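Appendix B, example 12.
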Amino acid sequence: MQNVRLAINKKKPDADKNLKLAQKILIKKGFKISNKPDFIIALGGDGTLLSAVADYAHYDVPILGVNLGGLGFLTDVKFSQFRKILDEIKRNRFRIENRMMVCAEIKKDVLYALNDITICTNTPGRVVEFSAKIDGEYICRFVADGIIIATPTGSTAYSLATGGPILMPNSEAIIMTPIAPHTLSVRPIVLPSDCKIEIQIGRKGKAIIVADGQRSKILKTGEDIKFYKAPYYVKLIKPIDSTFFKTLKEKLKWGGRENA
């Protein structure tokens, strides 16, 4: 892999400086900046990587996330490790992780997400009424601030913060997590990836749907949204020695104390 394209959030401080430095390092290492890349480098945080996923995932091009500061759960390569990971890529010493995506279909519009798709109230302080079906079977009706449909990758993001479970990123599953439901009987549920979820917006409240924090759409009362596994995967470039649990411990301090 020699041809590369850089994706960066230009609104971030020092964005131009970091972009020029990254370009200089890439050229010095023998890579070519190209509009027909073999792989994408997302410079920034998780938001930058999710933006790159929205732009390039359907082209089947691997993406490397390089963290320029902040938590960076998905962008787990630090900028100080940039030269090292480029050397590893040249030597073909890296892993490709295939990450499942989820879709939301609203009439003729389709939203895609690597982490999650959220339906939430469009009026702070007000709730939304939802009804849910799985594979055509009615399962529940409830009032809440919102609902999250998350992938295994997204299980450590918004869904986790609202009480959802952590899944291994190579799992084939979809998580449905309510946000502050006004009942104790509706809790997060893990579903097989081949199931079809249908959410209908009830009479209470106004709602908005947001995919990975990138794309959004206002929803009307009575509108049906269909969720299902996307037809393609995101390919993430990872260091050969990286593991999910190593990242989980480092970034989220998961697991408590080390074994004595």
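The longest strand covers residues 224-239. The CA atoms of residues 13 and 68 lie 10 Å apart.
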